[in-house]
């Protein structure tokens, strides 16, 4: 059987440190993104100012402020139809994405959700950040992509699901 580095080892041969490192390379990213999204979701759900239609620190005020400078103003308009509802949807979405990522449950679906949240925020809230690398939403979007592609094959609930086939959601 061929290993990751082109070397070969039998089914009962232990893998080397390099092979183990490759297998678990995405685990720190998974833990960071999962914990960050859980924290972001809980922070929003416990912040009464954020979950308001108007006022300092509210989702309504934020979307109103970025509406004209957003790459896709229609996204801000959608949020402004029901700022409180959008705020709850965003917070619960972040919480579910974070929990799914940490647990490795439907990891690719969770990563897709994280990427979509990050993309939406990049196209609205942080679109005009200059220089672009100061805007964290773009970095989060790119960080979700390896997890979207690879899933969570190790130390995850996905790995324990019976009949799970590699390469599928």
How would you sum up this structure, described in words?
By secondary structure, the protein is mainly alpha-helical. 60% of the residues lie in helices and 0% in strands. Helix 2 packs antiparallel against helix 5, helix 5 runs antiparallel to helix 6 and helix 6 packs antiparallel against helix 7. The radius of gyration is 19 Å and the shape is elongated. The two termini are 26 Å apart.
Task: Annotate the secondary structure layout.
Layout: H1 17-23, H2 27-45, H3 59-66, H4 73-81, H5 83-103, H6 107-124, H7 136-150, H8 157-160
Helix pairs in contact: 2-5, 3-4, 4-5, 5-6, 6-7
Distance, first to last CA: 26 Å
Summed up, the helix count is 8
Q: From N to C, what is the helix and strand string?
A: HHHHHHHH
The helix content, as a percent range, equals 55-70%
Going by helix content, strand content and strand pairing, the class is: mainly alpha
Based on CA inertia axes, which overall geometry fits?
Answer: elongated
Radius of gyration (Å): 19 Å
């Amino acid at each position: 059987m061929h290993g990751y580095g082109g070397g070969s080892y039998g089914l009962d041969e232990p893998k080397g440190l390099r092979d183990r490192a490759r297998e678990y390379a995405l685990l720190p990213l998974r833990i960071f993104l999962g914990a960050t999204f859980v924290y972001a979701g809980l922070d929003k759900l416990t912040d009464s100012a954020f979950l308001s239609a108007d006022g300092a620190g509210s989702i309504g005020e934020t979307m109103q402020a970025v509406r004209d400078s957003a790459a896709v103003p229609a996204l801000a308009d959608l949020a402004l139809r029901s700022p409180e509802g959008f705020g709850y949807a965003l917070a619960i979405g972040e919480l579910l994405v974070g929990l799914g990522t940490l647990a490795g449950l439907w990891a690719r679906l969770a990563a897709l959700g994280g990427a979509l949240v990050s993309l939406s925020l990049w196209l609205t809230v942080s679109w005009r950040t200059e220089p672009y690398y100061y805007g964290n939403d773009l970095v989060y979007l790119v960080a979700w992509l390896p997890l979207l592609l690879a899933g969570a094959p190790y130390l995850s609930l996905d790995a324990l699901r019976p009949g799970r086939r590699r390469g599928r959601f």
